[in-house]
Each structure stands twice: as structure tokens, then as C-alpha cells.
From TrEMBL:
Pfam families on file: HTH_1 (PF00126), LysR_substrate (PF03466)
Keywords from the UniProt entry: DNA-binding, Transcription, Transcription regulation
Gene3D superfamilies associated with the record: 3.40.190.290, Winged helix-like DNA-binding domain superfamily/Winged helix DNA-binding domain
GO molecular function, a single term: DNA binding
This protein's GO CC annotations: cytosol
Keyword DNA-binding: yes
Organism: Phyllobacterium salinisoli
Protein name, per record: LysR family transcriptional regulator
Keyword Transcription assigned: yes
Family: Belongs to the LysR transcriptional regulatory family.
SUPFAM superfamilies found in the cross-reference section: Periplasmic binding protein-like II, Winged helix' DNA-binding domain
Length: 297
């Protein structure tokens, strides 16, 4: 059997994300191209590498064996690039960073800006993922750095505190909810929501609703917290957003902010790297920078 580096990179991406769609995006391939490569890998090896289901993909025993060897190869390639980069000062480099929604939108821009300005030859490939996907991808060596909820932490990661992230409910002033100090998701089951158009936070809220036996009713799904707050302030529906966004937009959007009392609404965020990886100087530098002077304490 003959697998090239693109095949192995794709396979690790799919294994880390638990999804062919997300894995293809991480590997920079179209979904049809990724699916064809995965089929060719199974045909070349004469063995099934993954089981495909409605909730994503899981590796077979043969797939786990391939993933193990692919990770070793990937680690060796990363170590080689890291060592060579120390000699090629004039070349550009790129770091892979995964983040949950709240950090990506509200916290990372201000934290990344001074570091990137001080390191003009380093680019960042920044992608949004759910925390559990981030943990798997970083532990597998597919991403350099992750920012995730502590609840998703698994073995094989080094973590440093990053920030606290609380989700709150936003609604129009004068809404019945504004008389409450806090509210649980189950108490809003009959209300119409404003949501994000896909993304990790949308998936997180949907999963928590499903765990409580709820299926939230959405009037519209939007692309930003700003849009959700503007629509909530106009009385279109209620939204769930990070407290940092609600505070920033409270006056402009004319919204009321109510504490979401569910335990999953408050998350401690950490920045993480792979525990046994040979970290290049840029990765070590960014890792320490993101953990320094934590916002939201």
C-alpha cells in the first residue's frame, strides 16, 4: 500500500474531528476529493479504516493502527520543520490554532494582535471547533495550539489558564425575563430563540438542549453576536451569547442581560498544546503569550 503525506494528513484530520466534512476542511480539500482519497486508502490497504455513521465517523481497529503510525510520521515532520525553521530565519511560517466560538470572536483578536505584530513572518491558520474536537486534534498533533473548555480536556495535553467564559441570555428590555436574576434553559423551552448560523457555540447549545430533552425553536440564525443582540433588543426573540459580547453590546443594542443558571453555561477556558510534542520556538512563544495577562478573570 502507498499513502502519501496528504493522505495521512487527511486521515488524521478526519480522525481528530470525527467528521469527514470537518477533516476535509482542516486538510484544505474539498469534500468530494477527501472522500475519494479515503476510499482509495481503504482499497489500497484492502481493509476498512473507519465506520461512517449519521453522527460522524469512528476508526476501526485497522484505522487506529494507521492513525498511530500517521501521528508518528506527522510528529517527525513537525520536528523537522521546527528545527529547520531555526536556520531559515527569512522564511515565513504558519501555525495551526483551533478555538471555540467565544474565544474566537470575543477574546482572541485582542490577544493575537500584539503577538502577530511582533512576529511579522508568522501567519496563523485560525479555525473554529467545539472543545472536544479541539482536544482530539491537538492531542493527535494535527493543530499546534487549542483554546478550549476545561470540560473537554483529555490526556496528552499541557494546559494553561486562558479565561472564564459565561453564557448569558439577552432579550429586549421589558421582556418577562428581565424581572429574573437568572434563568435555566428548561424554563425557556416555549420561547423563540435567535441563534448563530452553525459554529461551535451553536452545536454546544444544541447538545445541551438535547441532553435536557429540548429542541429549541429558532426564529432566525445569524452570523454574529452583534446581530443576535441587535435583533434581541428589537424584541424579535431571545439569544444566548458570551457575557463579554453582551456587556460590549448592551448599550448599543438596548438589551437586557439575564444570567444563565445552568452549570454548563460557565466554562473555564484553557490554552493547550500536545504534551509530548517537540514545540517549535514560535509555538512555545504563542502558547506562553496567550496564557499571559488573562482577560475575564
Amino acid at each position: 500500500m502507498r499513502f502519501d503525506l496528504t493522505d495521512l494528513r487527511l486521515f488524521l484530520a478526519v480522525a481528530g474531528a470525527g467528521s469527514i466534512t470537518h477533516g476535509a476542511m482542516d486538510a484544505g480539500l474539498s469534500l468530494p476529493a477527501a472522500s475519494e482519497r479515503l476510499r482509495d486508502m481503504e482499497l489500497a490497504g484492502g481493509v476498512r479504516l473507519m465506520e461512517r455513521g449519521r453522527r460522524g465517523v469512528t476508526l476501526t481497529e485497522a484505522g487506529e493502527a494507521l492513525a498511530h503510525h500517521a501521528r508518528l510520521i506527522h510528529q517527525q515532520m513537525s520536528a523537522m520543520r521546527g528545527e529547520l525553521s531555526e536556520y531559515a530565519i527569512a522564511l515565513r511560517s504558519r501555525l495551526q490554532v483551533l478555538s471555540n466560538t467565544a474565544s474566537l470572536v470575543e477574546l482572541l483578536p485582542q490577544r493575537l494582535a500584539p503577538w502577530m505584530a511582533a512576529n511579522p513572518r508568522i501567519d496563523i491558520d485560525l479555525k473554529e471547533r467545539q472543545s472536544i474536537e479541539i482536544a482530539r486534534s491537538v492531542a493527535a498533533g494535527f493543530a499546534d495550539i487549542g483554546i478550549l473548555s476545561d470540560a473537554a480536556v483529555q490526556e496528552g495535553l499541557i494546559l494553561l489558564p486562558f479565561a472564564r467564559d459565561r453564557l448569558v441570555v439577552v432579550t429586549a428590555r421589558g421582556d418577562d425575563l428581565t424581572g429574573l436574576r437568572q434563568v435555566r434553559l428548561t424554563e425557556m423551552a416555549d420561547r423563540y430563540f435567535l441563534g448563530l448560523l452553525d459554529g461551535a457555540l451553536h452545536d454546544h447549545i444544541a447538545a445541551q438542549a438535547a441532553a435536557a430533552g429540548l429542541r429549541l425553536k429558532y426564529r432566525v440564525k445569524l452570523r454574529s453576536f452583534d446581530a443576535i443582540c441587535q435583533m434581541a433588543g428589537a424584541g424579535v426573540g431571545i439569544g444566548i451569547v458570551p457575557e463579554t459580547a453582551a456587556r460590549r453590546l448592551k448599550r448599543a443594542a438596548d438589551i437586557a442581560v439575564i444570567r444563565l443558571a445552568d452549570e454548563w453555561a460557565e466554562r473555564r477556558l484553557s490554552v493547550c498544546v500536545k504534551a509530548d510534542a517537540h514545540l517549535s520556538a514560535p509555538v512555545q512563544s504563542l502558547f506562553q503569550h496567550l496564557a499571559k495577562a488573562r482577560p475575564g478573570r
